[in-house]
Amino acid sequence: MPVAIQAGLWGLLSGSALLLGALVGWYARLPQRLIAAIMAFGAGVLISALSFELMDEAWKQGGFLPVAGGFLSGATIYTAANWVLAHRGARHRKRSGASGKRDQQAAEHPNNGLALALGALLDGIPESIVIGVSLIQGGAVGVVAVIAVFLSNLPEGLSSAAGLKQEGKSAAYNFGLWTGIALISGAAAAIGYVAFAGVDPGVVAFVQAVAAGAILAMIVDTMVPEASEGTHDFAGLISVSGFLVAFALSKLG
């Protein structure tokens, strides 16, 4: 099987966690605290993955300048795009709505469907590209990266679906959104491999650092608020647990 197709399938697998989470969030009435705890765990997993699977590997390939430039660029690009979408109704896209912030968002932006969809893409595409790029080295996927993205996508789909349901969005809209994002995640992973296979290692390092910067900005801007609000004093401990699990998988793998 061509490596690009493998990359696409791995990206689709990690993206499918969005749909799985959406199914649970739509049909099961999970406590707000549990949703927030899953979000905190996923944040810890992603922080570990971007530290050891992205930044460390990028440093080995390109050194300080590509890594620093890419990291800051990724965070800046994500922050600018997220600011635009936040002012169009996608600020609380990862919240499940118990705090009332989703209600306020829906009242201010009743036609925010496109902003929510673009926000989900903004969050997911850097993660998917990372999966594709990970196959460039030796043709083997970064398993920890796939697991980290899968575990972080699960609470995103769960929390967002619960919030969409509270806003009055239809089931067709909800599942159509997450199915589309999962498919685009697979395509982004394939593109990540095709676009950067054979290019200079410094360029690959820069791309990895861009993704890492975007992911870290996403964690702080969208995942941490939901996690902290729902779990209060336990958010840090749960996030540390997620970090440890991903760190162990990275080293044992």
UniProtKB/TrEMBL annotation:
Compartments where located: Cell membrane
How does the record say this protein sits in the membrane?
Answer: Multi-pass membrane protein
Principal localization reads membrane
Q: Where are the transmembrane segments?
A: 6-27, 34-52, 64-85, 129-151, 171-196, 203-220, 232-250
Keywords of the record, alphabetical order, are:
Cell membrane, Membrane, Transmembrane, Transmembrane helix, Zinc
Give the protein family: Belongs to the ZIP transporter (TC 2.A.5) family.
What protein is this chain from? ZIP family zinc transporter
